[in-house]
Design a protein that fits this description.
Layout: H1 6-32, H2 38-49, H3 52-62, H4 66-91, H5 93-112, H6 123-140, H7 150-191, E1 241-246, E2 252-255, H8 256-261, E3 265-272, E4 283-292, H9 293-300, E5 308-313, E6 318-322, H10 323-327, E7 333-338, E8 341-342, E9 352-354, E10 368-374, E11 397-402, E12 408-410, E13 412-421, E14 427-434, E15 440-441, E16 443-444, E17 454-462, E18 465-475, E19 498-504
Parallel strand pairs: 1-10, 12-19
Antiparallel strand pairs: 1-2, 3-4, 4-7, 5-6, 5-10, 7-8, 7-9, 11-13, 13-17, 14-15, 14-18, 16-17, 18-19
The protein binds the ligand Nc1nc2c(c(=O)[nH]1)N[C@H]1C(S)=C(S)[C@@H](COP(=O)(O)O)O[C@H]1N2 and molybdenum atom.
Length: 506
């Protein structure tokens, strides 16, 4: 047998380490996230940044073979990069480390730019990166044996390469096996038919008509995401059960089909997060469909003295929800659909709670599986145990979307706009003030309902120079935002949202 030169071994080491990293990141993605492997994200990024003309030429030349060719090209290029990193490793481990880092950063960027990306989506990339570094080190140490014969050295190197390759294959296969269950659930979500659930377009009257103001209806892909979960629970609707117990006459256990046997309630509801700072993005508005919580609680028969429901999620997260908010005339529901489609996994599929007027942390339990009728004095829940307020009604707020801080506009008549909300009370008025001047009434679009936000706009006479714009809202009870600044902890931020911008001579 011919001897393998050291540089060939380094190349092979790079290739084996590289593929092993792809395998572990693939497995991690299958097990921990609702994503394909990061390689797919990178491929999508490449497709997105490929100039249209190049793509068209490629498709013209290759016809329907364009996808397989793209995939094959990516695989070949990636292998070449791994080989190159192996060679770099023969010069110095630092260089290969930098190369892995660059590659991982690219992967990270590709993964995190995706719609609805979450921090945990980064884990597979990190896992892959660590695999690369460790495996190249393990192999690199065996490229040039310090002692023993050349044959022994070669054997040790090849044994390690084969072991790593084998280990990576096992990890990938395990990931696939675990992921297969998840794929099946994804399939059942896609095929799920929800009788009584409709899709609704927002009324055109809800649009104020200023570019850059947040759309009145938030697309599900753009809806903010907040939760404490590491791996998004993937629950097959046929495995889902809801238990209602505690201070009730009879304990109720419902399956998903039982739930859908009840009448469906639908509503536009704005959901917001208590940790949303003044002017922040943690708020969205969607068309929710589900079953009224009150209906289910009535079926269970509630005993006197209950003032709270402790909700528990499949992943163990808990929140205590004000009884009145769940049972009065507002549309508190166990939602099965968001914007007319089954809930996205990360928004609580198959069932989550939506309670108009309460911050998410005390109400909007995703992947909900348990409702315990109880008293606040007996409740211990995730965020209230960490110093956040027990009840969490949403505070009257307003936000400027246009201009954003730092924008440059043309002096003259400038259209500004944003959103305001006073959930379950309704917005009466929005006012803006330029450079500390008089408050000026803004126009309001159709708010939809008292449980949704409303778009506002105003036309300001703006001279050249730097400016400061403020907004404040008044609700239908006559309360006006005071301007006193309050931090998000313990029960939500307060203050006038302020942006600074500059205007140039026309
Ligand atoms: N299971 C579970 N549900 C949860 C949370 C969580 O951490 N786990 N976070 C809550 C918080 S703080 C908010 S603001 C909303 C956010 O819902 P969204 O991610 O669908 O926008 O979900 C709530 N429901
Ligand atoms: Mo939240």
């Amino acid at each position: 047998m011919s001897h393998m030169s050291a540089s060939r071994r380094w190349a092979l080491a790079g290739l084996v380490a590289g593929l092993a990293g792809l395998a572990t990141s693939y497995a991690a993605a299958l097990v921990l996230t609702i994503r394909e492997s990061p390689v797919v994200a990178v491929a999508e990024l490449v497709v997105d940044v490929t100039p249209g003309a190049v793509a068209e030429t490629a498709i013209g030349l290759l016809g329907s073979a364009d996808k397989p060719v793209l995939v094959a090209t990516i695989i070949v290029l990636t292998c070449l990069v791994f080989v190159a990193i192996g060679w770099l490793g023969s010069r110095s481990w630092r260089r290969s480390l930098v190369a892995w880092l660059l590659l991982a950063s690219f992967g990270l960027f590709a993964v995190l730019r995706q719609d609805g990306a979450r921090a945990t989506d980064a884990i597979p990339v990190v896992v892959g990166f660590l695999t690369w570094v460790v495996c190249l080190d393990l192999l690199g140490r065996r490229v040039s044996p310090a002692s023993g014969s050349e044959d022994d050295g070669r054997r040790r190197f090849l044994t390690m390469a084969v072991s790593i390759g084998f280990g990576a294959a096992v990890v990938a296969a395990l990931g696939r096996f675990v992921g297969a269950g998840r794929r099946r659930v994804e399939e059942s979500r896609r095929l799920l038919r929800l009788p009584g659930v409709t899709r609704r377009e927002p009324s055109p009257d809800t649009r104020i008509g200023v570019d850059g103001v947040s759309p009145w209806r938030t697309r599900s892909e753009d809806f903010y995401l907040i939760d404490t979960t590491i791996a998004v629970p993937i629950i097959d609707p046929s495995d889902w059960q809801l238990r209602i117990h505690g201070m009730v006459d009879r304990e109720v256990v419902l399956t998903f089909t039982d739930l859908l046997d009840r009448e469906v309630t639908e509503a536009w509801v704005t959901l917001s997060c208590v940790s949303n700072p003044v002017g922040g993005p943690l708020i969205g508005n969607a068309w929710w469909s589900g079953v009224r919580v009150a209906t289910l609680l009535e079926e269970a028969g509630v005993q006197d003295g209950a003032d709270a429901v402790l909700q528990t999620s499949d992943d163990g997260w808990t929140c205590g929800t004000l009884w009145d908010a769940l049972t009065d005339d507002r549309d508190a529901m166990l939602a099965v659909a968001m914007n007319g489609r089954p809930l996205p996994f990360e928004h609580g599929f198959p069932v989550r709670t939506i309670v108009p007027g309460l911050y998410g942390y005390v109400s909007a339990c995703k992947w909900v599986v348990d409702l315990e009728v109880t008293r606040f004095s007996d409740v211990s829940a995730f965020w209230t145990d960490r110093g956040w307020a027990e009840r969490g009604p949403v505070k009257l707020s307003s936000r400027i979307d246009v201009p954003s801080s730092g924008d440059e506009v043309v002096a003259g008549a400038v259209r500004v706009g944003g959103v305001a909300w006073a959930q379950h009370v309704g917005i009466e008025a929005v006012e803006v003030a330029l450079d500390g001047g008089a408050w000026q009434r803004a126009e309001l679009a159709d708010p939809g309902t008292v449980d949704t936000w409303v778009q506002w706009a105003a036309t300001l006479d703006v001279g050249p120079g730097d400016h400061l714009l403020r907004v404040r809202a008044t609700d239908r009870d006559g309360t006006t935002q005071s301007g006193v600044e309050v931090d998000v902890l313990p029960d939500g931020a307060e203050g006038w949202h302020t942006v600074d911008f500059s205007a140039d001579e026309a």
